[in-house]
Amino acid sequence: MTDFVRGLRLWFAPQRIREEGETPDYRFSLANERTFLAWIRTALALVGGGFAVDQFLPGLRWGVRAGMALALLAAGALCALRAVNHWVRCERAMRRDEDLPVSRFPTLLSVAVGLVAGAMVVVVLLGWSG
């Protein structure tokens, strides 16, 4: 079984994490869980922002409104999936006494949100409408 599949299985059976290495100091596991919850809050905010753009900008051209809303909704969905993936990867690394994993996801998420925010600034300043 590949490392990816083992990690994916831990998404749905987190109790199996105990099979990985040694139990870390509980404070590190709790910090990892707080980070997970922060990612979930971010995902919920992005999803809420996507719905807000769709519902509260009815005067905006459909394609622009839908594009911004879908970008935020997709970012929220990816962020939620990334949250659990990051939790598993960090927990496994701590138990194996390895370096914590690095990721480009925060950069990609920041760029996506920045682009949508920039588009929204243009919409607000120019007052584009359908």
What's the arrangement of secondary structure elements?
Layout: H1 3-12, H2 26-56, H3 62-95, H4 105-126
Largest sheet: none
What's the tally of helices?
4
- Helix-strand category: mainly alpha
Distance between the termini: 53 Å
Approximate shape: elongated
Which stretches are low in confidence, meaning pLDDT under 50 for 5 or more residues running?
A: none
Helix percentage range: over 70%
Instruction: Give the ordered list of helices and strands.
Output: HHHH
Précis, in short:
With 130 residues, this protein is mostly helical. 75% of the residues lie in helices and 0% in strands. The protein has four helices and no strands.
Describe the protein's architecture and organization.
This protein has 130 residues and is mostly helical. The protein contains 4 helices and no strands. Helix 1 (3-12) crosses helix 3. The relative contact order is 0.16.
